[in-house]
Design brief:
Blueprint: H1 2-24, H2 26-52, H3 58-89, H4 91-108, H5 117-121, H6 124-158, H7 161-168, H8 172-214, H9 219-229, H10 235-250, H11 262-289, H12 297-311, H13 313-330, H14 337-343, H15 354-365, H16 367-370
């Protein structure tokens, strides 16, 4: 009993210390983690290209994957910039509608003298609320160059990982175990990223067509916002449905077939976006995702809160894959495997140790090991 309490105490202290280190080093560790996942995406592209064109040189496949990701980044930046410009060109109309909505809300709750949007944005309380969000956005933009540098060095370092692994684990059994664990982590990360990207693309395309049909302004911008929000578990889907609906409340003009009341327009937009989020998220995504995550729903929600508190917005995007990686690694520690079992959805948290499997196999084949009297 005392030994177990000491073990739990050590794990608790180690977890708190690790969490403190992750939070304090978030400016360095979060961009590096994002770079690792971008590198995994590029590696997945290169592996797929070599699969379809086996004769293609390895370096050329990597160059093609880098080009694909670069084109995607440029496309995202272009669409976002165009969306911001379009909103800015109608800023006066949107501000007038927002002021009308604020006045109606104040009238409903019985408060006098409704403030304008400008008064709300530039009040002391609003500035204190908005500043952290602006600082986070500026930090993400500033870290983009650092992330690209990390990706480049990951490509350079990956060429020598095999030799380094041989020297770190001289014994063949330990080396095979390390390779197996690394392959399990890579497979889970790649499968999650591929499936989540595919799901996000499907939802974004359907949402774009829906918003375009309904007449919401700048549907391409909202489709891209929804694409990225779908990488945030649970909460991302909620925001993906709520944000376009909130914008629908202040849109100044709608097609003739839409209701005259903006509140009904917002409700229609919310329901239309929610249909795709709910339908694909609950029926299509589980079939495609399979066992790539193998995390219980409660663990996914807790990981979102914990990683969000540690790393902010990047932590929310990385919450699920980082938790999967930790689960697989913890599963290799005999005294901590029970933690990985609790984190998993089916009680099978990743690969088992070859040494443990070999010991179990020998014990099963040895009659003396099975007979306590012997």
């Amino acid at each position: 009993m005392n030994r177990n309490l000491q073990s739990w105490g050590v794990w608790l202290i180690a977890t708190v210390a690790l969490g403190f280190a992750l939070h304090q080093g978030r400016d360095i560790l979060a961009p590096f983690a994002l770079a690792v996942f971008i590198w995994l995406v590029m590696e997945g592209f290169a592996r797929s290209i070599r699969k379809f064109v086996p004769a293609l040189p390895d370096w050329l496949a990597h160059m093609a994957s880098i080009a694909i990701v670069a084109v995607g980044v440029v496309l995202v930046i272009s669409v976002m910039a165009q969306g911001v410009r379009e909103f800015a060109s109608h800023a006066d109309l949107y501000e007038a509608r927002i002021n009308d909505v604020i006045a109606k809300v104040y009238g409903v709750i019985g408060m006098e003298r409704a403030p304008t949007l400008g008064e709300l944005l530039f009040s002391d309380a609003s500035v204190r609320f908005i500043e952290p969000a602006l600082e986070a956005a500026q930090g993400l933009a500033a870290n983009l160059v650092l992330i690209l540098i990390y990706v480049g060095f990951l490509y350079l370092a990956s060429t020598t990982w095999s030799q380094k692994l041989d020297k770190i684990f001289p014994a063949s059994t330990a080396r095979d175990q390390a390779r197996e664990v690394g392959e399990e982590v890579r497979r889970s990360m790649e499968q999650y990223l591929w499936v989540q990207t595919l799901i996000s693309v499907i939802i974004s395309l359907l949402t774009y067509a829906t918003l375009l049909t309904l007449g919401l302004d700048n549907p391409m911008f909202w489709a891209f916002i929804i694409f990225f929000l779908n990488f945030i578990p649970t909460i991302g889907s909620i925001f993906a449905a709520v944000l376009p609906a909130l914008f629908a409340l202040v849109q100044p003009a709608w097609p003739d077939f839409m209701p005259a009341d903006p509140a009904w327009c917002a409700l229609i937009v919310f329901l239309a976006v929610s249909v795709w989020q709910f339908g694909i998220g609950n029926f299509v995504q589980p079939r495609l995702m399979g066992d790539s995550l193998n995390l219980s729903a409660l663990v996914v929600l807790l990981s979102l809160a914990i990683w969000g508190a540690l790393w902010g917005i990047p932590g929310m995007f990385l919450a699920a894959p980082m938790t999967v990686m930790i689960m697989i690694l913890i599963a290799q520690v005999p005294g901590a495997r029970w933690i990985a079992v609790l984190l998993s959805a089916d009680g099978s948290p990743g690969v088992r140790s070859p040494l443990k499997e070999g010991a179990d196999k020998n014990a099963a084949q040895d009659p003396a090991a099975q007979d306590p009297a012997a």
